[in-house]
Amino acid sequence: MKVKKLSNSGVKLMQGNEACAAGALAADCKFMAGYPITPATEIPEYLSSSMFAADGVFMQMEDELASINAVIGASWGGARAMTATSGPGFTLMQEALGYAAVTETPLVVINVMRGGPATGQPTCTSQDAVMQARYGGHGDYEIIALTPSSVQEAFDFTVRAFNLADKYRVPVLVLSDETVGHTREKLVIPETVEIFDDKYEGVCTEYFKPDENGIPPRLHFFEGHNVLVDGQLHDERGIRAGTDPKVCAAAIRRYCSKILDNIDDITSVEEFFLDDADTVVVAYGSVSRSALSAVRRARNGGMKVGMLKLNTVWPVPEKEIRKACANARRVIVPEMNVGDYMREVQRIAGYDKVEGFSSIGGVFPAPKAIYEKIVEVK
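User: That's the sequence. What structure does it adopt?
Assistant: Structure tokens below.
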């Protein structure tokens, strides 16, 4: 890791979307390609006026397909690169995200989630892309997805997303939502940030040959290497091997294992009042703020309620979920969808004691609503 000194450190008042953009600049992002879409537009707006001052490039593309492919090209060209989108824009990016996974291209996508399906509710909040983030593309590969709940986390998690992308050579998603994106609150920009820096020394002829952790060399075009980058399953040289089951199976297993074998390094959770909790709330993203308020109210009322906040939803922090829910009689998973991530928690903690609390239609769940659910299951 190298340390980068920031010239704009200090206390700021920012929207979550602006904080994501500021975090990208802090993380040394040098290329952003995007297409305006509600409720993510403030991100390209911010970067369109600041990227050039940071010696970077901003490009408004003709659509989301062009945006994600331009980001892939910029990453191979040696730049930390990103895009931002929402709803149907994220849907359009799925094939290219799969291409980034199979070519092990580091990049960051900020998805400011809104209500769907299709054009759905452009101005309303939701968490309906959680399963799409993991299973939207065809084929087998693992993804990393971070879920900020505040303006501060929007900044911090964006910085971390770039570091994880480079470290594991994988697309990383920041699953924000309209609530976080349009919340304006205090942000503390630090004096320095750590930047992952593990440049390959010498000339590489087998770009996809993994190290002991299953990760290929960190290199780019224009560095003297002689490699082939192709979207078909390939060998360590990059030569197509779509008809070789042994080579293809090994590649697919590695796309998964380089993430799953490093879950402890990748995932992040926060624990609240879990020591004696017989009811546990598992929440992520903006909903975790309402959930924590409800949990505190329940504790003040004498109820033994605790909460596990997930900062990373993919890969699933199974060990932490299992531990938090082991002694609980009931587990509640509040989210702004029809119970998508509840299914993951049920798989880990048990179907008989886990239930969801769904807030859909663009309605953000108030602490009172989650508190009433806690009282109900008691």
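The first strand starts at residue 2 and ends at 5.
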